[in-house]
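User: Sequence in, structure out. Go.
Assistant: Echoing your sequence, followed by the structure tokens.
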Amino acid sequence: MNLSAFKAGASVQRVQYKSFEPAHINTHWHMDDDDLNMLLSIANLKLGELNAFSQLIPDIDFFIKMYVVKEGTQSTKIEGTQTNIDEAIQSEWNISPEKLDDWQEVQHYVQAMNEAVAGLEKLPISNRLLKQMNRTLLQGVRGKHKLPGEFRSSQNWIGGSSLVDAAFIPPHPDSIADYMADLEQFIHNPNLSIPHLIKIGMIHFQFETIHPFLDGNGRLGRLLITLFLVSHQLLVKPTLYLSDFFEKHRTHYFDKLTTVRTQNDMVQWLKFFLEGVRSTAESAIQTLKDIIVLRSDCENLLVSLGKKQLLAKQFLNYLYSHPITDATSAAKDLGISITTTLRLIDDLVRMGMLIESTGNKRNRVFVFERYMQLFRR
């Protein structure tokens, strides 16, 4: 079937509202739009460049944590939380009580991504995996009454204060299992020759339309994008995250999804999605290039430390995944004495690599500022 002929589904009258019942998507789709084909070629090219470049970076895993944390902050920000990346990478004891719930939601997102990527070999993308990820996302106070890890058994809605004034009402709960079975079959159907980026774009739309859980659907749907790219080996390492692009273009993001449902225009959504892949891949490549320059500059500075250089490099590698830290946490994580840690910190502060952020004499927090700037932009 041609993508230009896509039919998203239909609104079905319920007792006091209409729910949107999506059409099944587990069928072959033909790309019949030249502009879409061009955008797909460009997005694939940039994604391939990012994948190749990431494999050339020594110790890439040191830096991936920051990509995941940034994704977590941006994806939860779309849902209304206020935690920024500086707060997200700090220890819990550094977070003010009024921000703790938002901070925990970001941590749960990071945990869900890490667990899913690590477990892909044992548990491929499936409804079982999605339920496990949802359970991780909703752990804690905010999610405990929202059936974490289970498909919803009641009607939910998006926007508005009730079903009466909702902006969008997903399908009736009685049909969730059927729609999710079709989506799982679409993900794994070996007889469909659909380009991977087109497929995950459609998967994201369908998942958000089904909205199978009481909470966490937006975050889980965006997390699913990176998981799909890794599971199909388009990325060896999870280095591409679209939530930053979606958050920066939030109105267009929601409008494009809505337009598919109201006007059956899947092509326009996929064009927006592919532009997100291209833009995000280019940004990620530039960040990795900047990390290489920063790393070289820092290691050149460490040469002046003489015999302490080896330990200082170890500390520097630690900072790549913990760029905001304190002496106690660093000493514990590195397995060195607090005295040695404080001396290393003093050396790096003197060199301008670390900046003390609190102004306190006790409980001081140090920031790898130049590195942090790469992930704030």
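User: And one key feature?
Assistant: Residues 266-302 form the longest helix (37 residues).
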